[in-house]
Prior knowledge:
The protein has one domain (10-199): Rossmann fold, CATH 3.40.50. 31% of the residues lie in helices and 23% in strands. The protein is built from six helices and ten strands.
Amino acid sequence: xxxxxxxxxxxxxxxxxxxxxxxxxxxxxxxxxxxxxxxxxxxxxxxxxxxxxxxxxxxxxxxxxxxxxxxxxxxxxxxxxxxxxxxxxxxxxxxxxxxxxxxxxxxxxxxxxxxxxxxxxxxxxxxxxxxxxxxxxxxxxxxxxxxxxxxxxxxxxxxxxxxxxxxxxxxxxxxxxxxxxxxxxxxxxxxxxxxxxxxxxxxxxxxxxxxxxxxxxxxxxxxxxx
Length: 226
């Protein structure tokens, strides 16, 4: 993994915006569409707001959610709500998880079907953004949860006992197909995980350390400021 480390937020955001343009241009030329899977949570929100200010071909860009909380789309904890608010005004298409229907299992099956229909089989995102939680989880692949062992599904329902909630999450299988993966992280609490990832520590067992990309690149964009 390639580590890009920054001491202040402006240069951190600038580097990711430049990287977005570097990846997006060739993707649009080669395939006519830039397919991106986004991370939820609070860390990437500033990046999304910066991207939304770009003069970018948003009509040819499709955004997806790498994971989602099993809440309605207007709920304060909804990843879709955060992404929608950040990109409103751009006109970009955001493919949301229909979390208001049925169960997390039904929602996961429907989202996987949508991704396969849009991106082909196997589906290869041009870019997948991931975060790292304070327990080392990424997407909604939490420690000691069932989705960590999923090998067939691309999108899986995942119950997180310590939170008492259902999530749906990208699986390691889907992540492996990506053309590029970025870990977007910030703050000193992430430093131990960042060091282990950058050094490809064979002893690391936290979920983010198990992310692989068969044909693409994995980069870490880390801001040391909280």
